[in-house]
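Residues and backbone
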Amino acid sequence: MCASKCVLPLRPNIQKIKASRAFLTGASLSEPYFFDRKLQKWVDNILSTEKPDAVLIFSSAMAQYVYQHPLCPKNLVIDFVDVDSDKWLQYA
């Protein structure tokens, strides 16, 4: 069940510029590519008002919103459907 959702557009040209910052910080390219302040505010609000018992994170790029959040619940499942190392192994 899903009580609410937050859907935001991706603007590939802008996202690529944001992703290039990863070269300066050592982060993965996908972290800044998929980061959005509006989405972080939505997650912050959900964690503080709903106080979920568990969170399911779908993909490593979305983990940044919850994983080290001070209100992250103890029950956390991260589905790394996009593990790059395995993806490149399959391509090889």
About this structure: The chain has a mean pLDDT of 89. Residues 23 and 87 are 21 Å apart (CA to CA). Helices lie at 12-20, 22-25, 30-34, 37-49, 60-63, 84-91. The first strand starts at residue 54 and ends at 58.
